[in-house]
Design goal:
The protein has 6 helices and 4 strands; from the N terminus they run ββααααββαα. It is an alpha+beta fold and about 200 residues long. The protein folds into 2 domains: about 1-45, no CATH class; about 50-195, no CATH class.
Length: about 200
């Protein structure tokens, strides 16, 4: 049975009672005893489950906000990759024309431009993962939630997150390099050789 109890009210005025049990096995016995009393309408939860439920709405909001920000940043990165690869193709127009005049078809040109885009994407993804690990791995932050309960976040840069980030960077590099690669492959050889 509980060693000590203290009563409080939530922000909505709902009474709440916190009890310290001698061990974890005492909680089901206490819950059974309280719920079997017909005069009481109670919901018995462990403290961790209670606070997890309290922060569930905030976690959902943070998840939505994170996904929106990630989408905006991915769109910006995609336009940056497109701009970079169009500039690279434009700067190498004469070299591309020379390759085509030597007998290389459209496919090797597309592959070479995509390989460059993917190499840049991997380099950017690895650099981003290293910076995230150095700055945020093990970082903790807390805030006040509803009812003045404290919500704490502990950031961990796990291998799964790094792999997800590298996958996204490769996808952005592939999409950002595809249109410039197709443009490079479609360049007429005579125009490409005359480029400055």
């Amino acid at each position: 049975m509980p060693r000590r109890c203290r009563a409080r009210s939530t922000a909505a005025g709902i009474p709440r009672c916190c009890c310290n049990c001698a061990d974890a096995e005492a909680l089901p016995a206490l819950a059974g005893r309280l719920q079997s009393d017909p005069q009481l309408t109670v919901d018995v939860k462990a403290e961790r489950a209670y606070f997890s439920g309290q922060s569930e709405q905030l976690n959902g909001l943070i998840g939505i906000l994170t996904n929106v920000i990630a989408l905006i940043m991915a769109t910006g990165a995609l336009f940056g990759a497109l701009n970079t690869m169009y500039a690279a193709v434009s700067a190498r127009t004469r070299e591309i024309g020379t390759l085509r005049a030597l007998g290389f078809g459209a496919l090797p040109v597309v592959v070479s431009v995509l390989a460059e885009a993917l190499a840049l994407a991997v380099a950017g993804g690895v650099l981003g993962a290293v910076i995230a690990f150095v700055l945020f791995n093990g970082y903790s932050v807390s805030t006040l939630g509803s009812g003045f309960t404290q919500v704490a976040f502990h950031f961990a840069v796990t291998p799964q997150l790094v792999l997800r980030g590298l996958t996204w960077s490769l996808a952005i590099g592939l999409l950002g390099g595809l249109l410039p690669a197709l443009r490079a492959a479609r360049l007429p050889v005579t125009e490409a050789l005359r480029a400055n």
